[in-house]
Amino acid sequence: MLTRGFLGYQTSFMLDFVVVALVIVVPLMIWSLVEVKARRFENHRKLQMLLALILLVAVTLFEVDLQWVQGGWRNIVDRHEPPLSTEVIARSTWLLRIHLVFAISTPILWAVTLIGALRNYAKPAQPSAYSTTHKRLGWLSMIDLVLTSVTGVIFYAATFVLPTL
């Protein structure tokens, strides 16, 4: 039997940690957007850099735990007591694939957005000729991150929460 994560389900600490991070990151991204709309560009820059660093560390630790310690998500699912039905596993596999589309594209898009900003904005951050491109990339990054968060929470709930109800 798998140990219980801190949310009380048969997961791992890091899986629960990443799910909580996915829920927290969306309001923080909105806060960052509020900062830029209020023309507090330096606050926006600092918040984005902090979020990127925190998520990079969290996702790295999560992947190390998931792949090397837990042996992959299927090992977590296979150790579930009582065993999950084949229907739950099939649905979870499908949901995970959808989630991974966004989970893989988000850090790539976010990195392009951050690197572009670091290369094209002075310190302190101020609007420039690059602002239109950055704004488009920023919106795409935020939409992608929200979809990563939503699909991740749906996968978690469908795989670990709903089968226990």
TrEMBL record:
Cited Pfam families: DUF420
Membrane-crossing segments per the record: 12-34, 46-64, 94-118, 139-162
Keyword Mitochondrion: no
Key words, A-Z: Membrane, Transmembrane, Transmembrane helix
Signal peptide: none
Top-level taxon of origin: Bacteria
InterPro entries: DUF420
Entry keyword DNA-binding: no
Name of this protein: DUF420 domain-containing protein
